[in-house]
Amino acid sequence: RGVSWDAGARWTEPGCRSCMCQEGRVLCDAVSCSIPCSHPLPAPAGRCCPTCTGCLHEGVARAEGDVFSPSAGNCSICVCLAGNVSCLSPECPPGSCPSSSPSDCCSCHPGKCSFQGHMYAHGARFSLDGDGCTTCVCQGGEVECSFTPCPVLECPQHQWHLRPGQCCSSCRDPPVPTGCFLEEHGVEFPVGQLWSPGDPCELCICQADGSVSCRRTECLDTCPNPILIPGQCCPDCSAGCTYMGRVFSNNETFPSELDPCLSCICLVR
């Protein structure tokens, strides 16, 4: 399609097809999505896989942490959490009394709340199942529960991790780098490795965090006629002299190129 790809390169084509360049051939297949939740939202624009950062319930998109009642009107309370919808039905106290409205879930509303086999006084607060991730309150015989809001994670979803005893997922610790990979050269250097990237006056080192730090060597002019040695950064004043394009060794005498009556000598100072 008019685009050149290197061998081994991968890309995504319109229509959510994953393609790869292999031995001069383009191999494509449908993008495979792993969906770790029961009510994911449709894939955002420009992406192929549904997302679990909200919920799609009965055709209605719900934001993370939204508490709502289903359309059936059975007095259940539902919550959207990490792409999953959980619903709870109210528990009515034993006995009956006249109801002022046929839409009431229970026939009466006593001051106390009966919830999951326990009685709670009006205004009492407690945690659902003792997990600390929900806070419930008894209000006029009804129990209202809300989930602990979770922060928005900056890492990709496949790096989310729910640790034991925690209510919200956190980002997995990134793996410790073992070296530095230079994509433009396809070379990997271990941590602590020194190398010259082609300029003898530049020296690079692979840092512990996987980054590359480079510095240039500053040469000090210590003599007027140094020798330039190929592959060496700084001129050499100890090996001899460079004069009028010629190289002379230490203590060597030679006639001047400008005046044949003058004799010159190469001295290291």
Notable features of this structure?
0% helix, Complement Module, domain 1, secreted, 4 domains, mainly beta, three-stranded antiparallel beta sheet, signal, 269 residues, vWF_C/EGF_Fibrillin
Task: Write the SSE topology.
Layout (H helix, E strand, L loop, with lengths): L9 E4 L3 E6 L2 E6 L23 E4 L2 E4 L3 E2 L8 E5 L2 E5 L24 E3 L2 E3 L4 E2 L7 E6 L2 E6 L12 E2 L8 E2 L7 E4 L4 E4 L3 E2 L6 E5 L5 E5 L24 E3 L2 E3 L4 E3 L7 E3 L4
Antiparallel strand pairs: 1-2, 2-3, 4-5, 6-7, 7-8, 9-10, 11-12, 12-13, 14-15, 16-17, 18-19, 19-20, 21-22, 23-24
GO biological process, one term: cellular response to virus
Keywords: Glycoprotein, Secreted, Signal
InterPro entries: vWF_C/EGF_Fibrillin, VWF_dom
Instruction: Sum up the overall morphology in one term.
Output: elongated
- Tell me the count of domains: 4
Sheet-strand content, in percent, reads 25-35%
Main β-sheet, in a few words? 3 strands, antiparallel
Determine the fraction of residues in helical runs and give it as a percent range: under 10%
Name the helix and strand elements from N-terminus to C-terminus, one letter apiece.
EEEEEEEEEEEEEEEEEEEEEEEE
Q: Look at the structure and give the mean pLDDT.
A: 82
What does this structure look like?
The protein has four domains: 9-88, no CATH class; 119-146, no CATH class; 179-216, Complement Module, domain 1 (Ribbon); 224-268, no CATH class. 0% of the residues lie in helices and 34% in strands. It has strands at 10-13, 17-22, 25-30, 54-57, 60-63, 67-68, 77-81, 84-88, 113-115, 118-120, 125-126, 134-139, 142-147, 160-161, 170-171, 179-182, 187-190, 194-195, 202-206, 212-216, 241-243, 246-248, 253-255, 263-265. A hairpin with an 8-residue loop joins strand 6 (67-68) and strand 7 (77-81). Keywords: Glycoprotein, Secreted, Signal.
